[in-house]
Design brief:
about 350 residues, Rossmann fold, 7-stranded parallel beta sheet, 15 helices, 13 strands, binds uridine-diphosphate-N-acetylglucosamine, binds uridine-5'-diphosphate
């Protein structure tokens, strides 16, 4: 039996881990033992616990309760505490997802102890090193032994950085989650309005922490009074809107962050999506909803090439033009696999470990 320590900590990682942690407890129960470590980066009930209870993810074996802080403080605290877990557990592999501070801290702690690292969502690049996520991705990939890439462009990005050993092209783990949970969770939500609406999310540091970009986005949405918006508000955004004394008009329904079932309900019912989230860009695509992305670059370039996603940055007029011209493309290519990525990843780990 091989022992895997999985490190998660932020909302998108709970969604991704849900797939593999569930498989380890079921189909792969005889092969792997998983110790699930939650760094505590996200800690509000609706940013963390709701995902474990609703999605039937095994509860974390360890919670490091690191909480919020500056990048250095948060990452440093995680490193020290993850190392203690690794000393105690002596795993055969450390598994991380995505590009958050929890991702990098997990990978770095294991790499220093010569414990092999598997990175799910390897090779994604925005080519914007100012983004904390880009730094985390590049550093994590460099020290990973098994690099699971969701797209060919991710494989190509790694090749350009001289990384080809241990690189595997799989599908996208979030497609597995989207397909599985739309069957198993109630797709009803009290937050889905009866009339047509736009689903919006906003939380990336490059938008929230820059008052000019934040104002550009708020001004655009406030000018779109003929549309109804539903915006589950990330705590980071709440904080920065208050600091910048910015607010949305009455046509924008602000709600607290919702669980994954609520989010699937909103994604399936909306007309289109306005977001700066990595995961929500893809989920819009999974539901065949056009997406307008409030960023200057995306790692999910295939959605743009296929005509389902348009990048608008944070400039008011550009956002308005995109909303007016939003279209649903005729073709929907299967860009992200068949929904069996969890099995592909576990089979490869089983073979290579
Ligand atoms: C983090 C990730 C980002 C990811 C996002 C997913 C990094 C560098 N960033 O950003 O890539 O897209 O998670 O949602 O890892 N807060 C709360 N309650 C919580 C969590 C956060 O109030 O449960 C507030 C705190 O004021 C905190 C702020 O949100 O300072 C930001 O949280 P943090 O984890 O630093 O970054 P995110 O913006 O969530
Ligand atoms: N999500 C959710 N509730 C919300 C907002 C997002 O369940 O209120 C889910 C969303 O469906 C996706 C994931 O969280 O699966 C994306 O996380 P987020 O946007 O926080 O981070 P990113 O993907 O940008 O790193």
């Amino acid at each position: 039996m091989k022992k895997i320590v999985t490190v998660v900590g932020a909302r998108p990682q709970f969604v991704k881990a849900a797939v593999i942690s569930r498989l380890i407890k079921s189909e792969y129960a005889g092969e792997f033992e998983e110790i699930l470590v939650h760094t505590g980066q996200h800690y509000d009930e609706n940013m963390s616990d709701i995902f474990f209870s609703e999605m039937d993810i095994p509860y974390p074996d360890v919670n490091l309760h690191v909480g919020s802080g500056s990048h250095g403080a948060m990452t440093g605290r995680m490193l020290e505490k993850i190392e203690e877990v690794l000393f105690a557990e002596k795993p055969d592999l450390l598994l991380v997802y995505g590009d958050t501070n929890s991702t990098f801290a997990g990978a770095f702690a294991a790499s220093k102890l010569h414990i092999p690292v598997a990175h799910v969502e390897a090779g994604l690049r925005s080519f914007n090193m100012a983004m904390p996520e880009e730094q985390n991705r590049i550093l994590t990939d460099r020290i990973s032994n098994l690099l699971f890439c969701p797209t060919q462009s991710a494989v190509d990005n790694l090749a350009h950085e001289g990384l080809s050993k241990g690189v595997y092209r799989t599908g996208d783990i979030m497609l597995d989650a989207s397909l599985y949970y739309r069957q198993s969770l109630s797709m009803e939500s009290e937050f889905v309005p009866s009339e047509s609406f736009v689903l919006m999310t906003l939380h990336r540091a490059e938008n929230t922490d820059d008052p000019q970009r934040l104002k550009g986005i708020v001004d655009a949405v406030n000018a779109l009074e003929s549309h109804r918006f539903v915006l589950p508000l990330h705590p980071r955004t709440k904080k920065y809107l208050e600091a910048a004394s910015l607010s949305f008009g009455k046509h924008v329904t602000l709600i607290d962050p919702v669980g994954f079932g609520g989010m699937l309900a909103l994604e399936s019912a909306c007309d289109f999506v306005l977001t700066d989230s990595g995961g929500v860009q893809k989920e819009a695509f999974f539901f065949k909803k056009p997406c307008i992305t409030l960023r200057d670059q995306t790692e999910w370039v295939e959605t743009v090439e296929a005509g389902w996603n348009v990048l608008v940055g944070a400039e008011t007029q550009t956002i308005l033009n995109a909303v007016v011209n939003v279209v649903t493309p005729g073709e929907w290519p299967a860009l992200y696999g068949s929904g069996k990525t969890g099995q592909e990843i576990l089979d490869t780990i089983s073979e290579k470990l």
